[in-house]
Design goal:
globular, mainly alpha, 70 residues
């Protein structure tokens, strides 16, 4: 929940329109496993797998756009 909250914050505040648009977000780095300081495999494992990582973020974003901030 905290990771999704952090990743959707730029959208919530109008700095970006998509999860991958914000240059300083770790969302895309985790998605593409392109960071030497972020253990993407571990974080994705917290969600279950890559598909669930993406799905949970999309659900979180859908909730934000619907005005439901959980």
């Amino acid at each position: 929940t905290v990771i999704c909250y952090i990743h959707r914050n730029p959208i919530h505040h109008g700095f970006a329109k998509t999860l991958t648009e914000w240059s300083w977000s770790s969302y895309k780095m985790i998605l593409e496993n392109k960071s030497s300081i972020i253990n993407a495999s571990e974080i994705i494992g917290w969600f279950g797998n890559l598909e669930q990582y993406i799905s949970k973020h999309q659900h979180s974003l859908d909730s934000l756009l619907d005005g439901d901030f959980d």
